Amino acid sequence: MSGGIEIPVRVTQVTPVAHRIKRFRFERLDGGPMPYFSGGAHIIVSMNDNGHVRRNAYSLMSPPYDCSAYEISVLHVEDSRGGSSFMHEKVREGDEMRVSHPVNLFQPDWRGRKHLLIAGGIGITPFIAMMEQFSREGAHFELHYAVRTRDRGAYCEDLVARYGPHRVKIYCDAEDNRIPVARLLDSQPLGTHLYVCGPAGMIDGVLKAGLEAGWPEQNLHSERFLSSQPGKPFSIELTRSGKTIHVGHHESMLEAIEAAGIDVPFLCRGGACGQCETMVTVCDGKLLHNDVYLSDEEKASGRKVMLCVSRFEGNALHLDL
Predict the structure, then answer these.
(1) pTM exceeds 0.85
(2) Helix or strand holding residue 287 (H, E)
(3) Which residues make Cβ contacts (< 8 Å) with residue 291, sequence separation at least 6?
(4) Do 120 and 215 belong together in one domain?
(5) Using one digit for the tens of pLDDT, what is the confidence trace for 118-132?
(6) Where in 19-147 does DSSP place strands (E)?
(7) Which domain holds residue 63?
(8) 243 with 192, same domain?
(9) For residue 219, is it within any domain?
């Protein structure tokens, strides 16, 4: 696989932490230390589901300076394509798995005078490691964390206890308690950097509010891992390999190409990093771009596609692979 060399690990703990959320701890099979990472990093977890390999990205939430293990939290998505269901229903303590080396696409900007963190739901996970690093480095930060209901709020009490109610604010939709985004944006000192992770609508709204409030674009940071959406099955022709690949209803182009034994580079598998960008040589139909990496002009041109999240409808799609 082209996400880098995988690390054989053992699942040493599986802990329910909130409604439909479990925490998983991975330790190396050889007993050695895990590679160092920084707050905001993620890993790709490989899941062998009866011969079908699934690979999903998950934010690392263990302390960045603790290389004894990696920890992630997984939300059991109701319309899961299989990854979160596999983790929740099939993974047990003692199981052997493989994970990638860490990659950070959500690196804090250490030039910031202050770091304003806005999280929604499972989007809290990258901030847990990030706050640990901020605290250790003496950086000024505060977290505003929105949950649907109290029983879905992973780590709420732990975070308030660790960092204090002056730095961690919890908001609950069921209690009609919302994050006052506009007020927060207007009351920050110059040089503040904002980071947001959560549902797509929340991310879009916060970033739009930041730009409308006059924040410099370089001070606004976000992370979102998209997943390939289900759709009608289709076939693609790989011009260099000379292969025809069938993409199933719940399968991404990247997964189908990997299953055919063809190596494709990736880092996030979520439409954000650009590593699996592929040139389109023939497109008789419509590309369904679901990524956040390509510009609107690039998407309209029909000459590039992100294999990890995009789909196709039409008669013929040929890729330069």
Answers:
(1) yes
(2) strand 277-288
(3) 226, 271, 272, 306, 308, 309, 310
(4) yes
(5) 999 999 999 999 999
(6) 21-28, 42-49, 52-59, 70-75, 96-99, 114-120, 141-147
(7) 7-99
(8) no
(9) yes
